[in-house]
């Protein structure tokens, strides 16, 4: 609170602007989360049909821009006034204006999360290129978190841009020196790749997907190889706690797959915000 009181007016204005802009980006991320997996499935279906010389099952335009957003229950097209982040959901009382079917509370939650993280990142990193890069980092992680939670799939369309952008951003050592970023990308991929194959050789089962390797590689490209132990530790502990909770309180069997991407993304976000304390923590574990 004291830092807010004594902040420069320009910094406060940039933070508020980031929060508002983040709310709008959050609204767009809701579209990405819902549509990107469907777009990729449609492309796969069309590819298989084309190779089999059959009629394409999906010939209508379907992307992040068209068709217009509509209620999945009655087909009512969402108007501009019904698409204002958070406020429209509150005004509509979480229901479609036409058929009164419930609208998931996750939509405003994604918008609020994106707005809050955008404000925090601009406050911490400023509104220059480094701050803008941190915003894109957070937005991509938010999209991947919810897509993986829904589908247990991390799209290459998001993991690869995050990886390449991390290396580009660190060309001038925005977050870590370039050599640490390159080593982080390589080590991040190989660590989970090795765990995957070791687990598969021992149990005959797949413990995670290739998207997890790519996501950790991307986090290594942004945060450097020195942050990987802290990211892996944080994501593993939280994932284990959640997994045990699901078994105990919801009766899910151990064979039930739990997506690891959201925990990696959350740990990566914490690494961005609290780099030095986490580095000291991981060094403390190493010394112990």
3D structure, described in words:
The chain has 288 residues and is mostly helical. The chain is globular. It starts with a helix and ends with a helix. The model has no long low-confidence stretch (mean pLDDT 89). The protein is 69% helix and 0% strand.
What is the distance, rounded to the nearest whole angstrom, between the alpha carbons of the first and last residues? 36 Å
Number of helices: 11
Low-confidence regions: none
Query: Structural class, from helix and strand content?
Result: mainly alpha
Global mean pLDDT: 89
**Helix percentage range:** 55-70%
Radius of gyration over C-alpha positions, nearest whole angstrom? 21 Å
Globular, elongated, flat, extended or rod-shaped: what is the shape?
Answer: globular
- Please outline the major beta sheet: none
Beta-strand content bin: under 5%
Task: From the structure above, extract its key features.
288 residues, mainly alpha, 11 helices, globular
Task: Note the topology.
Blueprint: H1 2-5, H2 9-51, H3 87-91, H4 106-125, H5 129-151, H6 156-169, H7 178-203, H8 210-223, H9 228-250, H10 261-273, H11 275-287
What's the quick description here?
Helix content is 69%, strand content 0%.
